[in-house]
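User: I would dearly like some help making sense of a protein record. This is the protein in question:
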Amino acid sequence: MRLKFLAPLMLAIIFLTGCSQEDTPEAALDEIKIALSERNSAKLSERVDLDKFFSETYDAATIELAKNYAAYQTKYPDDPYFQHDAEFLTAYNAEHKNLHMKFLDGVKDSFFAKMPEPELPEENPTAYVACEFEKIRQAANVEIKETRIDDDKATVILDVQGDSSLRGHFIGQMTFELGFTRDEKNRWHFDAIENLDELTPTLVDKAELVWITFF
């Protein structure tokens, strides 16, 4: 199911920049970037709760997919996932959420364990997605365009541009608005993609391309 590919894709292309000495949202991004580069799950967990992010993004994406279901049904007539109705999609995602979260846990574990890439995706799907995550992460160029802070909430706006590689062309150009919260120790933590409603159509297009190519 496409949603289990969207969260790794989003993580790969947004956590690639940030540089600051004091603790700021940009500093949190920088630590996330370093944690991913070092495959350090403990360091990453200090700045983002991946399980919570995956779960909440899954639910939010389900809402967006259902909201614009008719458009996806028309655009992808050969995809069985979009050939019922919005109520079916919502129920299907709810019924299979635990299964999809388990898959994402496997991707996460494969990534931090540095599992080798399988020759064929079906030989080890979680390791395959983890390896694609790293390749996409390296193919993305990210620039912070703006940071807005309102008390203990912040939004960091990122411009994402793919490089000249095949995966860079797959990434293309996107703008992410990332939500952060500050804890009682004045440490910033990444919480959510705030403009998921705007990004969902583009991300669905990319997920469909992956699905058609490999599945």
